[in-house]
């Protein structure tokens, strides 16, 4: 068995679906030098109809040509808050890929800040209550629908396709109980769920309660789905990115959700993180390559925190 890096971490020729793939972390996963397309995978970029799917696909295909990669990108518009839309997405991929899918990256997520904001650490009781109570029920429902429930229905909808990929190879027919098929031995048939390190600590000086709670639920969902899919060794793994990697506009500090006159609420955290910096594309893309390739074929039902040590020092007071 070859232990060369080019073999262990290879995704060449594999088919992947990346939700929320037209921007932020999803685009990072597909586009980075360590990303899926640039390393030879055929990637379906799934995003809302209002998102820049077409230009993203064009950019990714141009990058594949430029880097002499055999990878490619395709686009699909889908509202993941709809169970029916998710079922249609799975049917579409199944029809195009002969009922199989190697990699499902369930990445799409949202964050809703309270309409009335305050500094949680210094605000008087009445101000804090006003801020927290300004949230609407719809904010909580929408956040959980996308950040948690959509992961569940995506995993279930794509289970037959992932099982087929895990079973691929000599003797694999998808009907086996317990034990990995040839495809699973190569790391195929994996669902990667994007969570957040906010699920693991008491967040910062703003109220991210609905977001953090939805991500904590997502972490447990990873284990629940992995257990339910275990008979076919369809792996389910999670990634919990740290502060900079969570932002929709990626790692540019000045763009990370500024709050009032204080500007970027995360800028002051970078020198307090053990890594002493914000996250970079390669930090996340490299983690994803590990988990969805042969290198990670023995990893199942766990979540990896990619945060530069943020959760080690986070105490809810910053």
TrEMBL record:
Pfam families: adh_short (PF00106), adh_short_C2 (PF13561)
PROSITE patterns: ADH_SHORT (PS00061)
Stretches assigned to coiled coil: none
Keywords, ordered alphabetically: NADP, Oxidoreductase
Domain of life according to the entry: Eukaryota
GO biological process terms, semicolon-separated: secondary metabolite biosynthetic process
Any one GO MF annotation of this record: oxidoreductase activity
InterPro entries assigned: NAD(P)-bd_dom_sf, Sc_DH/Rdtase_CS, SDR_fam, Sec_Metab_Biosynth_SDR
Family: Belongs to the short-chain dehydrogenases/reductases (SDR) family.
Name of this chain's protein: Putative short chain dehydrogenase
Organism per entry: Aspergillus mulundensis
């Amino acid at each position: 068995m070859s232990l060369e890096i080019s073999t262990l971490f290879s995704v060449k020729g594999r088919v992947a679906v990346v939700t929320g793939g037209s921007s932020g972390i999803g685009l990072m996963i597909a586009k980075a030098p360590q990303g899926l397309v640039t390393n030879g995978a055929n990637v379906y970029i799934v995003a809302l109809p209002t998102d820049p799917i077409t230009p993203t696909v064009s950019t990714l295909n141009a990058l594949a040509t430029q880097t002499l990669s055999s990878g490619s990108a395709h686009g699909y518009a889908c509202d993941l808050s709809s169970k029916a839309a998710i079922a249609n997405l799975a049917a579409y991929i199944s029809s195009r890929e002969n009922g199989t899918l190697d990699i499902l990256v369930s990445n799409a997520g949202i964050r809703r800040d309270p309409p009335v904001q305050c500094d949680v650490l210094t605000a008087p009781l009445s101000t804090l209550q006003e801020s927290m109570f300004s949230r609407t029920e719809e904010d909580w429902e929408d956040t959980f629908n996308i950040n948690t429930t959509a992961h569940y229905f995506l995993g279930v909808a794509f289970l037959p396709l992932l099982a087929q990929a895990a079973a691929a190879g000599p003797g694999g027919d998808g009907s086996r109980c317990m034990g990995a098929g040839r495809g699973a031995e190569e790391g195929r048939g994996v669902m990667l769920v994007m969570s957040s390190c906010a699920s693991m600590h008491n967040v910062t000086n703003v109220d991210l309660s609905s977001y953090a709670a939805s991500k904590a639920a997502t972490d447990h969902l990873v284990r629940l789905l992995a257990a339910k899919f275990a008979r076919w060794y369809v792996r389910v793994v999670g990634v919990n990115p740290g502060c900079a990697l969570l932002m929709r506009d990626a790692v540019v500090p000045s763009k990370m959700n500024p709050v009032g006159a204080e500007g970027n609420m995360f800028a002051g955290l970078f020198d307090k993180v053990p890594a002493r910096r914000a996250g970079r594309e390669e930090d996340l893309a490299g983690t994803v390559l590990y988990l969805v390739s042969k290198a990670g074929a023995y990893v199942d039902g766990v979540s990896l925190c990619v945060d530069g040590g943020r959760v080690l020092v986070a105490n809810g007071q910053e």
